[in-house]
Amino acid sequence: QVQLVESGGGLVQPGGSLRLSCAASRDIFSSCTMHWFRQAAGKQRQLVARITSGGTILYADSVKGRFTISRDNAKNTAYLQMNSLKPEDTAVYYCRATSGLRDYWGQGTQVTVSS
After folding, report:
1. Closest among 7, 11, 10, 17 to 82, alpha carbons compared
2. Phi, psi of 87, deg, nearest 5
3. What angle do CA 10, 70, 99 make, to 5 degrees?
4. Per-residue pLDDT tens for 58-89?
5. Alpha carbon separation from 100 to 33, 35, 60 (Å, rounded)
6. Could you say which of 22, 61, 101, 109 is the most buried, measured as most Cβ atoms within 10 Å of its Cβ?
């Protein structure tokens, strides 16, 4: 079983920045597509960004130009750099790792954007 542990969430003012990290417990990380999802209160979970094992990246339109996804295979860690944060970015952010039939989720980290 692979465990994913997110960190880096918190409270930030509009226009601020946060960097989320997702650390995997096992060395299968390099073969996985890493995803970041978010779920705001009362809403469905939505894809924010993903990066394949080969480095192909996809962003949701709502975060293009503000968020950057990356990965460090040597550290089994994925990152989500979030800049120019808006109140509508407030949500629980989840990390997900997929490879073939394997599908793992982290426990989530809260991001709150408020003045």
Report:
1. 17
2. -55, -35
3. 105
4. 999 999 999 999 999 999 999 999 999 999 99
5. 10, 14, 23
6. 22
